Amino acid sequence: MKINGTPFRSIWCEAGEVRIIDQRWLPHELRIVPLRTRAEFAAAIRDMWVRGAPLIGATAAWGMAVQMADDPSDAALAETWEVLHATRPTAINLRWALNEMRRLLAPLPPSERAAAAARRAAEICDEDVEINRRIGAHGLTLIREIAERKRGRVNILTHCNAGWLATVDWGTATSPIYHALEAGIDVHVFVDETRPRNQGALLTAWEMNSHGVSHDLIVDNAGGHLMQHGEVDLVIVGTDRTTAQGDVCNKIGTYLKALAAKANGVPFYVALPSPTIDWTVRDGVAEIPIEERSGAEVTHVQGKAPDGSVISVQISPDGTGARNPAFDVTPAALVTGLITERGICAAEAGAMAALFPEAARSAA
Ligand SMILES: CSC[C@H]1O[C@H](OP(=O)(O)O)[C@H](O)[C@@H]1O
Prior knowledge:
Elements: E1 2-3, E2 6-7, E3 11-14, E4 17-21, E5 32-35, H1 38-46, H2 53-70, H3 74-85, H4 92-105, H5 110-150, E6 154-158, H6 175-182, E7 187-192, H7 199-211, E8 214-218, H8 223-228, E9 234-237, E10 241-243, E11 248-251, H9 254-263, E12 268-271, E13 277-278, H10 284-287, H11 296-299, E14 300-304, E15 310-314, E16 327-330, E17 337-340, E18 343-345, H12 349-355, H13 357-363
Parallel strand pairs: 6-7, 6-9, 7-8, 9-12, 10-13, 12-17
Antiparallel strand pairs: 1-2, 3-4, 4-5, 10-11, 11-16, 14-15, 17-18
Helix pairs in contact: 1-2, 2-3, 2-4, 2-5, 3-4, 4-5, 5-6, 12-13
This protein binds ligand LNRAV4D5.
């Protein structure tokens, strides 16, 4: 997507090195940094220099490629899988990308691994962009239907950042929004701030500003009220892992939005790229590991100081502890539909398998 008119991806290879936008400093500072070692790739994922399920997968793929250029041995391949897989437990794209790289590289002679890994990592990035573009095209049909029915502005609520900053480009939940804007449809987005790391306030709002999408930032707890008063026509969120029966794991707070949407008859859709489907699990609440992050993310908040520097301030009393589950699971029964790159389907095992028969079969 564009930053001040210049096309950007969230991760790219330039001058022989992998570069990322270090998202910890957005929207106040645009910091582009190289990732040159396995340790830097691991830190970038673990400490959320990059975040978002598809982008985590793409970053891990490049991390494996950079390691193969340094040491293409079997031991390095195995160790790199373990080191990068251990960075964050919930987004399935991380395991998907590492397994894809291992599937490709393990049979190759070490001398061929670096070039093959770099090619595959670049392909995974390009595939992500195309998947998200297609999600946008399918999601556009939903928005267009509402626009034609209302003959007016379509109000969409989204949670966290499932934008191009969570992917290589386009985003997942934001892709239908960008497509609607390009189609001339009048859309307005309610951006959940998304405590504690405020991916909505810091990242989605920045994306909306950059692309001229009408939006309002709202506190997480305002969404139910807006739905009660008929101010939300559609909820679109992303996902970090969706089970074979359509249970959706996403940023903490998504489940509460789904409950409010159900209670108020608001369509609740999930933008779902197929690498984010975990065909090996069915019951999301029981089976998906939920990352517990540092309590400091709850007791402190980051922002721009009067002098323009980015600082963190404590908002709770000394000595107050915090729980910080980073994700929750929305049961399939609360999901109106899944917007995938192959079309929109019900959050239901048969409908999902019909769209992706080869993946469903291989996991059976
Ligand atoms: C398109 S997936 C984006 C997904 O990832 C976010 O989590 P995090 O920022 O912790 O990586 C959030 O759950 C988004 O919906």
